[in-house]
Amino acid sequence: MQGKGLITIVAIVLGLICLNELLPTWYASKIESQIEAANGNEKEIKRLKEDTLHLGFTDLYYSKAKDKEMKLGLDLKGGINVLLEINQRDLVSDLTNYSTNPVLIEALNRTDEVQKNSSKSYIDNFFVEFDAVNKAKGANLKLADPEIFGNTNLSEIKFNTTDDQVKSIVKKRIDLSVGTAFEVIRTRIDKLGAIQPNVQRVPGTARISVEMPGMKDIDKVKKMLQTSAKLQFWEIQQIPEVAPYFQTITTTIAAKGDSMGVAKNVNFMNLLQLDKLKTNGVASVKLSDTATVNKILNSKVAQSARPANIKYTQFMWGYKPEATDKNSLVLYAIRGNITQKAPVDGAVETANISYDELGRVVVDMQMDSKGAKDWKTLTEKNVGKPVAVTLDNRVYTAPNVVGAIPNGRTQISGNFSQDEAKELVDVLGAGKLPAGAKVVQATQVGPSLGQESIDAGVVSFAIAFLIIIVYIIFYYGGAGVYAVIAMIINLFYIFGIMDSGDFTLTLPGIAGIVLTMAMAVDTNVIIYERTKEELFAGKSIFEAYKDGFKHALNAIIDGHLTTLLTAVVLFFFGTGPIKGFALTLMIGVVMTLFTSVALSRVMIFSRLEKGKGLSVWTAPTKNLFRNTWIDFIGKRKIAYIVSLVLTIISLISIFTNGFRYGIDFTGGRNYVVRFDKPVNAEDIERKLVPFFKTEDGKNSSVEVKTFGNDNQLKISTDYLINDESLRADQTVEQKLFEGLKGDLSSSTTLADFKSADKGNTGIVSSEKVGPTVADDIKSHGILAVVAALGGIFIYILFRFRKWQFSLGAVIALFHDAIIILGAYSLLHRIMPFNMEINQDFVAAILTVLGYSINDTVIIFDRIREYLREKKSSTLAGLFDDSISSTLGRTFNTTFTVLLVILAIFIFGGDNLRGFMFALLIGIGFGAYSSVFIASAIAYDFLKTGKEEEVHGRTTTNKEVISSK
Asked: Membrane spanning segments where (predicted)?
């Protein structure tokens, strides 16, 4: 056999590489099991961590093995994932030197609105809006104008620089700024002490993806990552300047309270508690009243009532309650300006924890040269007056200036604890972000849920693997044993390659690996079915296997390439776990080709060349499908009617019943909450609704569904989803806790509730998706489906040289997609598991398309072969012969894949059930459509007007022909 030596060498080298990569994972897991068994024995634990395993070719010890072990995703290990978006408006404003040109301001405002429903980058939308506003106002401004980008911040731009050149320069600077933000974020994560963090820029956007397995405190993580570390110093306005305005608001509420979002009997002056004020602020407000005060001050009525002296004033809250009053927060009036640029806005060169003369924790800082110069000017100007030190619109301290500070040294005293001071020092020490950052998507999975996912994944994997082994050996006998050996080697390679590439294994990734096993079975089925045909034709065992591999190769390559095309589309258009699924599928496709075709061939022919036989069937399966022949073409009209009825039912349901959309398509928050007793979802929903009221007093949407067991709920809401601040997240969690308090364990605190672990009641996982991210996910999902269909059409056209085949394939795929959509529309209110339309569903649709086209390609390949060999006197007979001759492969592959999917559906855990249900429907209908729709459509468009229909075998001259 040609190439036998090369294939063997590649297999051995690849195996050694994978073994070397997987050993650290095995060793780290082994030591951790022993540590757990040590039951807190510190001496034994220390010995285990310092122990070394000498293997001759390498030494293994725990700390190094832990660093090199396979990465597990959040759904398997627990942890936190956030998607940060750098505020590009801030970047643009900075590059324009905070210009107040009305054309610029309007263009920025319009860009903010457009961006909410756009997948284009912010800067591209800005350039479009700037041109539109510029033209509408007849301003004839150039981008190089000094009031736009032609300023000292962009020295490379001259007055005669063209707009296209300016656009290129600005885009590069923004990209550099996002790169700077990426490095700052990565430094901060190192300070958080996360194990195996994964930090990546999202190409083509100003977004940074951060994944931290094992982390629990999501508030701490968000705060650390969102803080800009841009320390600012402002002048302060005090009570005499703002008191008249407060009095005006108090009077206005009595007349227009409804339009301000509060009751008319609210006494604003009482909320401010001026008699309790002991600082340089303008109010001391109870924590419970801060939201009301914010609502009043930010209302349009209050904004329009501002007198000239506080037109640009910014009202900011203190960082935390004062030590003298822990139930109130101080409100400060910051003297702003038209640009709202701080008088001192410099980065910190060094920051250290220190103590003042009373022993209180403070933070000492040294500013950079620019900040030191501006700080000196500000302090000289305000001797005897207060100034505020702010970080991300929070006032940390507001002392009176005793004298000018010339050297850039200053001190923040904010009633810190040691941990709070350390967090601030870490943030300042990591450097400042070039602009503010906001969390537009966040996922938190508790460690207990992660372990449950691992257990469910392992169980489903083991059952699926066992099913495949038993079935393929039962059906193909000795040849099946070689298929199983190739499949085990395939799995070893997949895990080894994932580990060596530092890829992350997720629960959908495990599903992808299990489906890869089914695909490996499909490959062997194609080979063995062709081998059986050759044996039945009278060839020797050696020649039968030789021709079986030869004739199966085209069909295998076509099927694998279409699946690979689907996986590539998924990888580029998917996000998060879907990328994990696509990645394992891509690796699996390539490795299946190597192990099930090349390596399996080497093993089989090594046996045959020694004169040993190798059965390709067992007694019960030898003649299955051998003499089966069905007049598919003659019955195609029945199939058309069945499919038309199902399609109409699906479309009616889609347009009348609609879908349940997931938050990654609509934006919102999901919480999986566990209780210590069974709870009723409808009762819980009724209890929660009153807690989620918007500013106009209307209830925000809240949906509660049982998730898995009857003591676990999935709660979804879009309350405050447009507010991407940490405070909004905390507000939603607080309201959720208050609404569920009566059904939780009496000992559950808010802190326990927010991060439930084993044995605790509360949130075991949470997810937040902002509206802009939801729009991107939705548009990417649509693009992915369109790209997959387009790619498949072109590939089929290229391979089969007839557009009729491409048309039949694509119509069949549309048919499958509509049936799945219809099933989800009809059943989403009935089924006891999640049936949301989300990115997982898009992945399922694309996976179904990949497997359906695989089935279709096998049939088309046989039709092409029979056309080339002129095996039939009529086209209809040729199609019937082709489909009938591939029935064994179609049944075996479909049956095996459905068994595997069913195993994952039953045992794979709640997170995968909706995904697997789509695959169950899709794979079943995919096999049906390949036979009854794709082939029939291709036939109807290929036949001539005089074509005769055939109702019998054509290759054995037992046909009965009737004219149309």
From this structure: 456-474, 481-498, 510-531, 552-574, 580-604, 638-659, 780-798, 805-826, 841-860, 891-909, 915-939
